[in-house]
Amino acid sequence: MLAELEAQRERDNQLWAWRKRIASERGPSDYTTRLVLLALAVLMESAGTNTVRVTQDQLAAATGLSRTWIVRKTRDAHAVGWVRRSRPRGMGRSWAGYDYTICTPMRWCDVNSVVPHGTVVTA
What we know:
Blueprint: H1 2-23, H2 31-47, E1 51-54, H3 56-63, H4 67-80, E2 83-86, E3 98-105, E4 120-122
Parallel strand pairs: 3-4
Antiparallel strand pairs: 1-3, 2-3
Helix pairs in contact: 1-2, 2-4, 3-4
């Protein structure tokens, strides 16, 4: 039980640090990308994990953006390195959604920055 609580606290700390990086001046410059990433953070927090499976329609409903904008902004966030996006195994249909995992773009990091243990850093 104690180990589970410690693991949950670590995930919460990682998610909180990721949210702070998104909202910082060094976060995504585009406000709609920030909105989509913060919506993902809320969904991750609800799920209690740093990975969440969500459809583009669910993100559109959560943000008030069109599905077209969700497709564009999640693709951009993945390309830059803010999230790792993958299709669930055996789920080739677009309605199945993606698994999104928190990441930190390498350009965000410098020699003085501290990235929480367990956070994926992408190039």
